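Have a think about this chain, tokens included, and walk me through the fold.
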Amino acid sequence: MNGQISRFWTDILPERIKQYVTRHAILMLIPVIMILTGCQNRMQMESSWTAKDTKADGDEARETDPLADLEKPKVTDPYKAFLNGELTVSLEEQQVYIDQLFWDNDIEYCYWDIDGDGSDELHIRDPHAYYIIKTDNETPRILFENWWQYEPVATDGLCGILRYDFQYSSGQMEFIRINADGSRQSDGLLRWFDENKSGSMDEEDYFTGCDSMSQYLQSMEEYAAIQAENRLQWRSRHLKHFATWQEAYIDFIQKIHVTLPFPEDHFEYSFIYVDDDHIPELYIFTGGMASGELILSFYNGKIRALNRDRVGMQYLEHGGRLYSGAGNTGFYPSNVYMLSQGEFTEIGTGWCSECVDDQRIVGYEYYWENVPVTEEQFEASINELIDLSKCIEPAELYSESEALEILRAISKGKK
């Protein structure tokens, strides 16, 4: 194991960070509490989740909220205690604290009676996950949980959860009501698929849950109106403060099995340099295609995670760009990401799909930003954003125990 640490120190960690750790080993023992800012991370999440401003005090209502002067819902002690990390909830037969439910270390939360029982529930989300927490006999429990594309909405006459997902020339919409007994009632899942490969919606496409394109578009307009009328008042909250990137990565490695409950020996880790600072990003291979890979960044005390549910992520070392083009079952998304000041942003999206005739692959169709293109145009679009010839994959993977030992050794300033 000492050989693993020594090899990481001499071969992977650049000279400037070795000097930084040596000079500042003592200072690293002094906690430096950083005020976290709000985040933007697309990850396929739409509408009101993006571009929100907050007050200086993250737990206050938003300045720009037109209903901020209305009476705020009464906050019950169990909710406060859960938000403060004093109470746990049951998840996958484990008792977990709030910070273990989320990949980012800051969240948004609000209160609303979504099941119509006369008492408010606690709604919590980050760019990846959304939970509804309800209390039973002063004990919090999870009423609803899901990942991506789920947004709670409350208007004067409607309250529920909106599922709204459009990508890769397909889309799906659904409005879900939650009843007081915990049961769920859906208005019906509507789906669209670009059947004729035109790159846009038309009458020849494939629709389910509705009779025609016009009915589908009408539902889109109705759901957009629901989003626009949403009355929920979100507040920002910081779950944990990290003084160093080593501390943040150790915390993440130790909690990742809560949200991705796979055996520990399936996870592999690496330290890579995507952007141009001296702090490495943490690469995690989960061992499964469904959960894929994660890239973790640390910037000014903030943790951000990029997850793609496939494998084969490449990156431009110190260039701030990442690329993934892996897929399966005849469909291969291509995504280009940028990492800047700790934030991941998808800056290019395309895909190719197999053309099958009599169960034989006879060619491929290519799209870039929802527009049909030739293979040459497809490759040129990618290379305008990232030079794939200079991209690399993580060179050396460590087990969980090895990664933790490396991080602890660096934190103590040891080779």
User: Anything to note?
Assistant: The helical segments are 2-12, 15-23, 77-83, 213-228, 245-259, 375-385, 400-411. DSSP finds seven helices and 23 strands in the chain. Confidence is low (pLDDT under 50) at residues 2-73.
